[in-house]
Specification:
The complex is a heterotrimer. Helices cover about 80% and strands about 0% of the residues of chain A. Chain A is an all-alpha fold. Chain A has a two-stranded antiparallel sheet with strand order 1-2. Chain A is globular, with a radius of gyration of 19 Å. In chain C, a hairpin with a 2-residue loop joins strand 1 (about 5-15) and strand 2. In chain C, about 50% of the residues are buried. In chain C, helix 3 packs parallel to helix 5 and helix 9 (about 230-235) runs antiparallel to helix 10. The chains are: A mainly alpha, B mainly alpha, C alpha/beta. The interface between A and B is large, with 44 and 41 residues.
């Protein structure tokens, strides 16, 4: 039972604090910082379902976030849907897209899959940049009146913040739920040895397609919320390859395959990045530092921070999942 | 009609440069089963290498390929030691991520030095005119240089001892070691050559088009397409597939808006990958 | 009575090599059928065709009355046909218990996590790995990994178990132990189809034996009949050791 897992309650407390503290202090700049942390945790956690659980590196994970943003914004502004409904619909549409796509590209193993995901990202990006209903390369804007319907800009921004925090909590709970389920066990078997998994009875084709699709859902919802909050979207910010890659760095840093590691890596990396970006000397070297971090982790600590903790305190494996 | 023909000839010439780039990727991939994700950033370094050298020595730019090849070999050894040597024998994903990390660092440093604004190498060879179309000298020279380097690699791999050692290691690393070949040396050499090829292709591209530090990414994708089309470990096959891709680009350019070309290319890449998941890639499991 | 496994006219070609050529045989309930033959005879390929890793080019495979010729390996497991690998494939970074739980979860009964764990514990006890349940599979010895293969397959609660050289690489004590496990499996009501190079073991374990050479079925019958068959002895002459052992067994 998920309710008996300490991590489950930890997630709820963490999310509640994140929602409450900036609201209580009415601190808008803290809110804007934290929403980026939440986004990082969402991206890293869902990426973890593919990389950490299933052993498939997805370089183009951000495609789900961007597409979610487009579908959500289109429904919320052009079709005047309620924001929450639009975001959920975006999640659903993008998940279905991932399912169909996954049936094709998940026939590829290992590195070949990873390469295909880069191709998918760039192909989708150039498609959207040519797609008239979504404003081609100039993108789409949220009309100011849309915020009025949510009770004014201030209210709308706080509301999207709480929603994003909710999506973050759901991302972590989803990771935990899958990790302790039979479905998760099947995924781990695929990660360890896909051929052996098939012979043990795991329907790898279906499992991989489902997890690929599931890993698309919450990032797409988050995309709809984030771009709504930002008020605009265009192909270069929606499908930013760099952000996709940073997701991988976050995950490797925290510890792939663990619920807490993905979140920890996401949070820490985002903090580090905002520090680097605001530091006048280091702002140009954000990529260099991210690259160096990734290299060090891959070469010397493939288990990331949590893996390192597990080695120090083996019993931690039972509590921190 | 002559428009298409001219565009296809252009494509053919540029395609040989794609082929050269892909040879570098294919060699490394085939010999050590490492998908080198520094490929794109090294291509970009080749472009800036040419830019710097040409600014310092304004001779015929194509002579500058020699120092760039040499520098590429050295750079290759460095990258090999930093990111690949330690993960040989670990899962393919480790080298994928470690080379990727180095890629990020190169791009980061490059952006800090050159920003992401466009540069170009101001060197023009005189071309010649047939009917109402002019073939630019640079395109012809770049294609010729690409073919010469490709043939040199082929000779090296088939006619020299180190070249044969590389092929032996690609074929069966354990057997090659039993025959007294030091696989570490060979892997490092193959990696260095692959990087030198990527850098030289970047240098050639810089004489044709303006470029930024991020330009390598596009050519990296093209190299993947070409490598997948050609199959691994066939340098001349990669050259031929590169020419094919160039021809294809040349043939469609007159008919569709330029902005659609990436979609076609990346779509093609994914489709080719998925269509030949077994035939070209996975080894038969016994 | 219909046989549990019925293979008829199966062929498998790899490029120019005909790895398995028109092989037919059947296997009854609670039977131990041995599969022997010189190296490269196509034994493992035949296993792979039977459990769906490869699709045969010709012929049919029937299991428990169902045509499984076109089934994938995971479907075959659900019907009750499990196997081990000659080259062990442990799920390295998972514990021994988790490895076996995978077998139980996705096996014939498709158990939920908790009952699967119980089955796994019970099976680990049976193969003598209970003490290593919480170790990572990576840290097992080769003998341990072979037992793990058997345990995982058993946890699927199969009707038929394909064992691919479970004795190879084991020392005499371990071999004796493994032979005990195989007997125990059969006594538990599970049929066994096994590839083995350790002649003494397979001769004493099997009810019947099929001999494969260059992809073709050379002989089939009771161990002592097969061992007397001049064709079989000739096929093994390239391997005098085994020919010698065959004679000894007479």
């Amino acid at each position: 039972m998920i309710l008996r897992r300490p991590v489950f309650w930890l997630i709820l407390v963490f999310a509640a604090l994140m929602a409450f503290i900036p609201f209580h202090a009415n601190d808008v700049s803290m809110r804007e910082d934290l929403i980026l942390v939440a986004l990082a945790v969402i991206l890293a956690s869902n990426l973890n379902l593919m990389i950490g659980y299933t052993g498939y590196v997805n370089f183009g994970h951000i495609v789900f976030y961007g597409l979610g943003g487009y579908v959500g914004l289109y429904l919320a502004t052009v079709r005047n849907w309620n924001l929450v409904l639009a975001a959920l619909a975006a999640g659903l549409v993008v998940s279905l897209f991932a399912l169909a796509l996954g049936m094709g590209i998940l026939r590829l193993r290992g590195a070949y899959f990873a390469l295909a995901t880069i191709g998918v990202l760039l192909a989708v990006q150039s498609f959207v940049a040519n797609f008239d209903p979504w404003g081609r390369s100039t993108g789409m804007y949220v009309d100011f009146s849309a915020y009025q319907r949510l009770g004014g800009a201030r209210h709308a921004l706080w509301m999207t913040y709480f929603l994003v925090i909710g999506v973050m909590a759901l991302s972590m709970i989803l990771s935990l739920g899958i990790k302790i389920s039979k479905f998760g066990l099947g995924l781990f078997a695929i990660r360890e040895d896909e051929d052996a998994a098939v012979v043990l009875g795991v329907n790898t084709t279906v499992f991989k397609a489902i997890i690929y699709s599931v890993s698309a859902f919450l990032p797409a919802v988050a995309g709809a919320l984030m771009f709504y909050k930002n008020g605009m979207i265009d192909p270069s910010i929606a499908f930013e390859f760099m952000l996709s890659l940073e997701g991988i760095v976050m995950l490797m840093l925290g510890g792939k395959g663990t619920v807490v590691g993905a979140a920890l890596g996401g949070g820490l990396y985002e903090k580090l990045r905002s520090y680097l970006l605001t530091s006048p000397k280091l702002s140009n070297f954000q990529l260099v530092i991210a690259g160096a971090l990734l290299l060090l982790v891959v070469l010397f600590a493939p288990g990331g921070l949590i893996g390192w903790l597990y080695r120090l305190v083996p019993r931690a494996r039972k509590v921190i999942e | 009609m002559s428009g298409i023909l001219a565009s296809m000839i252009d494509g053919l010439l540029i395609g040989s440069v794609y082929g050269l780039a892909a040879m570098g990727l294919s060699l490394i991939w085939g010999v050590m089963d490492v998908i080198n994700l520094t490929h794109g950033s090294v291509i970009a370094l080749g472009m800036f290498g040419m830019y710097i050298l040409f600014a310092a020595f304004p001779v015929n730019a194509y002579f500058l390929l020699l120092p760039i090849l040499a520098a590429g070999l050295l750079l290759g050894l460095v990258i090999y030691w930093i990111s690949v040597h330690w993960v040989i024998g670990r899962s393919q994903l480790s080298s994928l991520l470690s080379t990727f990390a180095v890629n990020m660092m190169i791009i980061g440093i490059g952006t800090a030095i050159w920003s992401t604004s466009p540069y170009n190498v101001n060197f023009t060879l005189r071309g010649f005119t047939v009917g109402d179309y002019t073939f630019t000298g640079n395109h012809i020279a770049a294609a010729t240089a690409a073919v010469i380097i490709a043939l040199a690699l082929e000779l090296f791999l088939y006619r020299t001892r180190p070249g044969k050692a590389i092929r032996a290691v690609a074929d069966n690393r354990e057997a090659a070691e039993l025959m007294g070949i030091s696989s570490t040396m060979v892997l490092a050499l193959a990696f260095a050559i692959g990087i030198a090829l990527a850098a030289s292709s970047g240098a050639l591209v810089s004489t044709l088009f303006p470029f930024t530090i991020l330009s390598g990414a596009g050519y990296q994708m093209k190299s993947f397409v070409v490598t997948v089309l050609a199959g691994l470990g066939k340098p001349l096959g990669a050259l031929a597939a590169g020419v094919l891709l160039g021809l294809l680009e040349g043939a469609v350019t007159p008919f569709i808006a330029v902005s659609w070309i990436p979609l076609i290319e990346f779509g093609l890449f994914v489709v080719v990958l998925v269509a030949f998941p077994k035939g070209i890639f996975t080894r038969a499991t016994a | 009575m219909t046989p549990l496994l019925e293979v008829s006219g199966v062929s498998k070609r790899f490029g120019g090599l005909l790895a398995v050529s028109d092989v037919s045989f059947s296997l009854g309930e609670r039977e131990i059928l041995g599969l022997i033959g010189p190296n490269g005879a196509g034994k493992t390929t035949l296993f792979n065709v039977v459990n769906g890793v490869y699709k045969g080019d010709k012929g049919t495979v029937k299991f428990a009355g169902e045509d499984i010729t076109k089934c994938s390996p995971n479907q075959v497991v659900h019907l009750g046909l499990a196997r081990t690998h000659q080259i062990v494939k442990p799920l390295q970074d998972m514990t021994v218990l988790e490895n076996v739980t995978v077998g139980a979860c996705f096996g014939r009964e498709y158990l939920a996590l908790k009952p699967a764990r119980n089955v796994a514990l019970e099976v680990l006890e049976r193969v003598g790995l209970a003490k290593s349940a919480e170790m990572s599979a990576r840290s097992l010895t080769i003998a341990g990994k072979k037992r793990l293969e058997v345990a995982r397959a058993l946890a699927a609660r199969p009707k038929l178990l394909l064992l691919d050289e479970v004795l190879a690489g084991l020392n005499p004590t371990e071999i004796t132990h493994m032979i005990g496990i195989v007997r125990d499996i059969r006594d538990g009501g599970i049929s066994v189809f096994m590839i083995e190079h350790v002649m003494q073991a397979i001769m004493s374990l099997s009810d019947r034996i099929v001999v494969l050479s260059f992809g073709q079925k050379l002989a089939e019958g009771k161990p002592e009949e097969v061992a007397r068959d001049p064709q079989v002895i000739e096929a093994y002459l390239g391997d005098p050791d085994i020919a010698e052992k065959l004679k000894e067994n007479n």
